[in-house]
Amino acid sequence: MQRLTPLLVGVLLTWLAPAMAQTPDYIIQSNSAPIRALSAPPGQTPRLAPAQPVAAAPLAALASAPAARSAARARVRIGVILPMESSALGEAAAVVRSGVEAAAQVEQNAELVSVDATTDNVVQRYRAAVADGVNVVIGPLSREAIAQLAPAVTVPTIALNSIDRQAAANPKLFSLSLVVEGEARQLARLMRDDGRVNPLLVEGGDALSQRLAKAFADEWRALTGKDAQRRPFDGGNLPALLEASGQADALALALDAAQAAKLKAALTPDMPVYGTSQLNIGGNQPELAGVRFIDMPWFLMPDHPAVKRYPRPAAALTPQTERLYALGIDAYRLAVQMAAARPGAVIRLDGVTGDLKLGRDRVFERQLPAGVMGGNALR
């Protein structure tokens, strides 16, 4: 999708707060915005755009979600196993499920079976769903629940997080997540392809920025055989950063949007600056105009037919939760594809969260489009 018609870049992103004492992937680390702008309390499905409403599914285990006419036309049964009643993950689960239901409403090619499950009962609920006729599963959401379920997986199951190395290997368990390290590696490749040879990597001190910086540095070394210059961000000592930037041909930012804006304002206008979706927090962001960045088509290409065919959530969702909504859309589309796929088949999807391909270790790899903040160039 990243090669399609250029569109005006829209800007949206922050991340959800961590749910447990673990290293999460898309539930990463708190920035300033909470997820309390949901119109429904935890455990209820947020409403969708009024033009294409979706009825909220009941929360009882194994309750059928779509309307009767959709069920009549269904070709597969998809179990959506999420912690809807969890105090920590209930809101995130509700957003993911609303994205799954939005895709189901548009595609009309599968029946949804909604299952509320926690780490303690996920195996029992999973087995009951499969016994009830579910032949592909979306979920669980937390890495702890995924590890608990891994040995019991018997049908294609798309876990919505990364899978711990300690989890039992299972050829029917797959991982679909919004991994920040993947963005950092893609950013390094983008800069290399743009002809940059001596980038300066500026990194924040928070855990998310450190993860981004490490992944970028590792990929740059693998691509070029050289170490990227690295400097910590110090808002009180910008002259030192500016001096270091004078020896570079581009800047790679592993910073939050506020830090990036402060640094960008001090740079000369001709200095090429690159970043990830971490910079994309919504609004016009004129202070970051000209920054080249990567993000999902759901935000960068909202008017493309492959994106706009799915209903947008109502204004009740905050930007960071909307990422989980988009993830739910792609999870549904992959589940339908995998239910019909032969063993060993190539699984690809031109998704709203990026171009997805099933890669090594049964992990879906994501390729994102690149845009320019304040511009309309997609490459």
From TrEMBL:
The keyword Signal is annotated on this UniProt entry: yes
Signal peptide: 1-21
Keyword Membrane attributed: yes
UniProt keyword terms in alphabetical order: Membrane, Signal
Any one Pfam family match given in the protein's UniProt record, by short name: LppC
Source superkingdom: Bacteria
PANTHER family per the UniProt record, alphabetical: PENICILLIN-BINDING PROTEIN ACTIVATOR LPOA
Name listed for the protein in its UniProt record: Penicillin-binding protein activator
The organism of origin for this protein: Chromobacterium subtsugae
